[in-house]
Amino acid sequence: MNKRTFLKLSGALMGGASWTRAFGRGLDEPASAGGLTNWAGNFRYGTDNLVSFRSGEQVREYVRGHDSMRTLGTRHCFNSIADSRHVLLSLKPMDQVVALDPKTSTVTVEAGVTYGRLGPYLHERGFALPNLASLPHISVAGACATATHGSGVKNGNLSSVVSAMELVTPSGDLVTLSREKDGDTFLGAVVHLGALGVVTKVTLDIQPAFDVSQEVFLNLPMKQLADHFDEIMSSGYSVSLFTDWRKGQVSEVWVKSKSRAGSNAPKPADLTKYGAARADRNIHPIVELSAENCTEQMGVAGPWFDRLPHFRMGFTPSSGRELQAEYFVARTDAVEAMLAVERLRDRVGPHLFISEIRTIEADNLWLSPCYKRPSVTIHFTLKPEWNAVRNLLPQIEKELSPFKVRPHWGKLFSLEPATLRSRYERLDDFKELAGKYDPKGKFRNEFLARNLYD
Ligand SMILES: Cc1cc2nc3c(=O)[nH]c(=O)nc-3n(C[C@H](O)[C@H](O)[C@H](O)COP(=O)(O)OP(=O)(O)OC[C@H]3O[C@@H](n4cnc5c(N)ncnc54)[C@H](O)[C@@H]3O)c2cc1C
Q1: 166-222 confidence digits (pLDDT tens)
Q2: Is the distance from the beta carbon of residue 39 to the nearest atom of ligand 1 less than 6 Å?
Q3: Cα angle 308-313-319, degrees, rounded to a multiple of 5
Q4: Which of 70, 130, 138, 428 is 20 to 30 A off residue 192, Cα-Cα?
């Protein structure tokens, strides 16, 4: 990294407490200025009143006796989706695996479990999840609540493998919802944005353990990508593109290939035929940063849980001090949508650490941004320059408006609520479901009121 880049990056990343104060307000302002923040530090929750629980019974008793609250996962959302003015509930101490059932190929976990804890547990017993997000630090319950995703043309988001949930409803009752028993209602409940009550257990579909090896290719010309998008995105089990949009190229293509556990790494994809160069060392998505935080590359096979995320457990994921926004488009619109963002490169570039493009298979979860739409996501890891980002997001959204984008529920966006609502055909059904479970709005916060309701 040259000295100028280093100073620029460290200036952005080292703002510390003053940065939190300066950029403490999201597009959606927190209700009051407490001291408790989200992971990125860009959002202060509206209360410091955090209550932790060790059992579902404790959760039930508390919920029954109180009027207004929200549940926190690991606080990795960038907006006010998890916020409350009154009380935040934490299930962090509830982090046990409850049951692994080889017969039904499922694992049931308490809501505080992170993917970083679950991955090695499953692998040691010969099992795997089909996919993971870019980082293992997030909770299973919090990730599935917002339809968090990884990449892969045939891989659904992380919520798509939820097969059952145990929920403490706003009245304090305990209900179990399952794909098998509850049909369409279950499909409505999985991506719930925290609106239905407190999820205390989640059951996930599992499969036999597998290995993954990842290769990184550098400097893929954008023209080649536009001409061969489907082939390139299908060149591995999970493929991610990183670009700053500036040089008419994708700076890095990460290709993750699947193989049988313990077998040799498969013959890697070869993207040199599209004009990219094979990386000769491990590399960070933000090329200036050390790859120490990243999972092993260079085609070395390893367990799925240690390759599917880009970032390693125990290390800071991504850049650490940043803002994130992400938009889902139909896969058929991906190339046009990318070219639209590229046209904004002079406006986006100065505020961007890096963009990532990924694919996600369609699903039928009512509030999933991939609902009935094979999707491509265009993600922005932005510098923590709140005023600039606040001006930039509407410009990006305007450029992407022909593609009817759906923003990531847990990241920053400025889309008009009416527009957002029009992008979810089952939204009214979801509101009816939420009304049934939570008629008094115990779990409704300002984010939900503004974005889902009038
Ligand atoms: C560095 C970084 C990298 C990221 N990478 C990705 C990525 O690769 N792909 C992607 O899609 N997203 C990514 N995200 C976004 C993140 O994964 C999601 O926002 C996710 O929802 C965060 O989960 P969490 O456990 O932190 O939940 P929180 O942010 O704490 O909460 C999220 C939502 O879940 C609800 N909730 C949490 N637990 C419960 C519960 N037990 N019961 C009821 N409701 C609950 C909350 O009320 C809230 O509405 C990234 C974020 C960061 C900071």
Answers
A1: 999 999 999 999 999 999 999 999 999 999 999 999 999 999 999 999 999 999 999
A2: yes
A3: 90
A4: 130
Rounded distance between C-alpha atoms, residue 345 and residue 107, angstroms: 44
CA distances (Å), origin 347, targets 221, 404, 411, 413? 21, 21, 20, 17
| Contacts (Cβ under 8 Å, ≥6 apart) of 38 | 45, 75, 76, 77, 78, 82
CB of 134 within 6 A of ligand 1: the answer is yes
Rounded Cα distance between 291 and 311, Å, is 9
Do 280 and 225 contact (CB within 8 A), yes or no? no
Task: Using alpha carbons, list the distances in angstroms from residue 310 to 181, 305, 358, 429.
Answer: 36, 10, 13, 36
pTM reported for the whole predicted model: 0.93
Write down the residue that tokens 């896969």 correspond to. 331
Taking only the tens place, the pLDDT of each residue in 235-246 is 999 999 999 999
Q: What are the per-10-residue average pLDDT scores of the chain (454 residues)?
A: 32 31 37 75 94 97 97 97 97 98 98 97 98 95 98 98 98 98 98 98 98 96 97 97 96 96 83 96 92 92 96 72 95 98 97 97 98 98 94 97 98 96 98 97 97 91
Residue 72 alpha carbon to ligand 1 centre in Å: 9
Q: Please tell me the distance from the alpha carbon of residue 19 to that of residue 43, in angstroms, as a whole number.
A: 11
Looking up tokens 């990056």 gives 9
In sequence order, what are the beta bridge partners of 89? 51, 71
Question: Which atom of ligand 1 is the closest one to the Cα of 167?
Answer: 42
- The minimum-distance atom of ligand 1 relative to the CA of 70 is 47
Nearest residue to 409 via CA among 115, 79, 165, 155: 79
**DSSP-H helix ranges across 46-130:** 56-65, 115-124
- Calculate how far, in angstroms, residue 318's C-alpha sits from the geometric centre of ligand 1: 15
For ligand 1, the distance from its centroid to the CA atom of residue 273, given in whole angstroms, is 38
